[in-house]
Amino acid sequence: MNTEPTRAPGRPRSPEADTAILRAALELLGEHKHVAAVSVEAVASRAGVGKATIYRRWSGKEELFTEAVATLRSPLPEVGQGASVRDDLVAVFTVVCGDLQSPLEQGVRLLMMSETHPEIAARIRRDVFAPRNEVVYQALRAGIARGELRADLDLTTVLNLLVGGAFVSSRSDTGQSPRQRAELLVDTVCDGLRAHG
Amino acid sequence: MNTEPTRAPGRPRSPEADTAILRAALELLGEHKHVAAVSVEAVASRAGVGKATIYRRWSGKEELFTEAVATLRSPLPEVGQGASVRDDLVAVFTVVCGDLQSPLEQGVRLLMMSETHPEIAARIRRDVFAPRNEVVYQALRAGIARGELRADLDLTTVLNLLVGGAFVSSRSDTGQSPRQRAELLVDTVCDGLRAHG
């Protein structure tokens, strides 16, 4: 029996080339600041591939940049499987805080601020950020279901606090590890500020 | 007796011209993305003044942009004067959330991300953001002193959560007023997520 996997027509895809192309796109964006200033030629040249390789693989910049951001993000852990909501959130935000330290994040921020290409930001929000936010919501809903968390929480506000807190804390160089940052953020939000006495 | 105020040499300063210059600097930055791409000529031309007017008033782009960001920020209320810490924080973050909706914020974000002009971001952080952060710390310290808040809080983490939460919530168009956003953020952090039973 032939166990060779079926191949799509054309040359086989190389994962190394894909990664080099996606990194090159974000690097160039960090340097040039404008999506419009990043040409497919420049991405191809930085990644050491031909333009045709890029066009064969992505329909355009919207797809290319969306996949670049998706690739830059590490997978999030499973949540709601019996651990405490605190441990779930610390696990998720340790990954988030780690990802935010990548030097390629500059490119991601520029994409999300682009006024000339709002469709790219919208697509990244839908295809990359929304499914990741859903993991946080899942953890919170599991915590409510188990009676650990208040049932009247505004979940969007909780998400905004944790994501925003991770974002701001990643901008200052405190020497804390991603896990330490995540623990401070999650414990402060979970326990609240008020003295209970 | 002559009650005419003493005048500095040269033409009197016009507050309207100053405002036009500072707005023009941030507008152009929002359009061109690069600090280096915003020339003093272009700022002068957009503001309808001569280059000399700008050079007479600001030593360079670092001073110009720092004052532009400072001017864009509304004054924060007095805190720690007897109201509850919750009311202090809501009052402060209502102003913060309002400011974050300005269309000129795009320019501020670009300044804070500039890799080519880190000295501008550092100066804005020192001269504009740090004194405003200090108001939040004052409110929190007053809350601890009155026994309203836990004494073991990590105040930097609380600041990062609230500032980051305000930042993220201002990016989505939910139709909420700045005060509603501020109340959701502050009440969620003050009360915490946990069910108390």
From TrEMBL, chains A, B:
Pfam families named in the record: TetR_C_11, TetR_N
Keywords: DNA-binding, Transcription, Transcription regulation
Residue span(s) of domain HTH tetR-type: 15-76
InterPro entries, sorted: Homeodomain-like_sf, HTH-type_TetR-like_transc_reg, HTH_TetR, Tet_transcr_reg_TetR-rel_C_sf, TetR_C
SUPFAM superfamilies cross-referenced by the UniProt entry: Homeodomain-like, Tetracyclin repressor-like, C-terminal domain
Domain of life: Bacteria
Position of the signal peptide: none
DNA-binding region of this protein: 39-58
Protein's name according to its UniProt entry: TetR/AcrR family transcriptional regulator
Organism: Lipingzhangella rawalii
